[in-house]
Amino acid sequence: MDLVLTGLEAPGLAPPSPVSSPGDHPLGPLVVQVAEDGPGRLAWSVANRGDHPVAVRSVRMVWEGRSVRGPVRLLRNGWQSWSPSAVATLGVDRDPSAGPAVPALVRQTHHPDAEPVTGHELRSELVTVLVDRDGAHLVGFLGGDRHDGTVRARPGATDDRVEVRAEAYLGGAVLAPGERRRLHPVEVRRGEPIDLLDGWAARFGAAAGARADAPYQVGWCSWYHYFTGVTEADVRSNLARAADWPFEVFQVDDGYQRAIGDWLVTDPSFPSELSDLALAIAHAGFRPGIWTAPFLAHPDSFVAGQHPGWFARWGDGDKRLVGNVAPHWGGNVHVLDTTHPEVLDHLERTAAALVDAGYTYLKLDFTYAPAIAGRYHDPSRTPAERVRAGYDAVRRGAGDDAFLLGCGAPLGPTVGVVDGMRIGPDVGPWWTNPRAGEITRDYAGGEPATVNAWRSTLVRSFLHRRWWLNDPDCVMLRAEATELSPTAARAWATAVGASGGMALVSDDLALLGPDARSLLDEVLAVGREVDALAVAGASVRCPDLLERPTPTRLECGPVRLVADLDEARGPLARVERS
Ligand code: 9PG
Fold first, then answer.
1. CA 404, 410, 413, 415: dihedral to nearest 10 degrees?
2. What is the mean pLDDT of residues 498-511?
């Protein structure tokens, strides 16, 4: 296929405009400037050329794919940590938003633009690779902190055509008269799919000032055994058994806090001061880590009671914007307005207080929330800028030495702020979820299930040490109090090792015997080896990324993950060496 630039679009503001060359192109009240910026790379900007403020939803470059020798397969990269990521086929698969009865909040949680897609259009965030029988093209943005970047592809008017759009999503950000915004450059390149992705990730990471040099992380996390029922006694009993384990981080997850939003006040199940618990963790020889969902607050939290003006709104009235509907948190939680200076100050002070209390590893969760469309204090900010502003405030408060782990996070805006990133959905003490899709419908691939974490760990392996340390999510090694079979638990742990990513154990250590320990030792040996190769510049690649809906292979240097995910028998995986 040949990709030919054919047009520019500003949906809702102007009719599509044909374009074949760089230059200044009027588009309704806007002018879009396109310039060649090195081989296979277009720089662009958008300006408001009128006398009135203009709310800009998105600006798009359009390519026509000609002489296509289909079928066309493409990578669908999800928007945030948990969003499903896998191969799809144009003309066959549908965007999950096009499916039946998807709740709005599910769409808002998995795309910068929650509007459902129509027809056979498919979306991928930040980057895609399109493959036909002639070869592969990459279309990718080289940055993500000014705006989201969505690649949209759809079948063309004839079988030998496709349409590809690179959409700078500004989410209705208001441009003042005369104001110009630089947009993230877009790369269009030909090559081998995995090489293309690897090179793109490296260039993106370098341009975004990625923090990709933290040490390999090994630790313990409370979530996947105790969930919200965790108590201080549970944490302390695991701490008492941890001395013989090779952990560096000991991380308390959701459940210690009085309410979502009140991160410095503990629930009665955690009677000690947060700083006393951190001291106990540090005395045991570990780095204290703690979970927060910094941009959310429950209506009953102190922060919501004291600062009713700190929330994003929706509609015309005073209703607070909902960021998540979580039964385990007692209903709706609301989105803090990260364009409000007082909120940013609060985020900075809260992060500083947690670090002062001893927690130098912060897991920052549900951080997609300020990207949700709503009414914000500063309407000139894009959704990506709202997320980035919140992260920057946390980083200011936590300081340069803190380890920040993004989670539930849009990937683009957070490169350069976080040290680690959850790059997939939650694992769970189960391989598949028998009730998958009951609420989330065609987004079932983003729900908590170990197979879903497996898929993203392989598909997004190439981001490791290019943008941050990949966090594939926790390993679970126990043989009781779990629905994971011992072979499935082993298969998952083996993939975590082969990915070179962060390795946190999430079990009640009282349930683990010598077998669990030797499995962990095996996983860490492979993990450290792969991670060291990645630090030295090797890529962690998934050769069957575009070959099957759930890939089975990873390669880095001499290390090869080989798996068989047979449904009936259950997953098997092992590491081989070449
Ligand atoms: C704590 C957990 C863990 C986990 C995170 C994240 O939509 N939901 O109801 C939903 C619940 C939990 C969840 C994601 C979504 O998991 O990924 O590691 O920290 O929060 O609540």
1. 50
2. 99
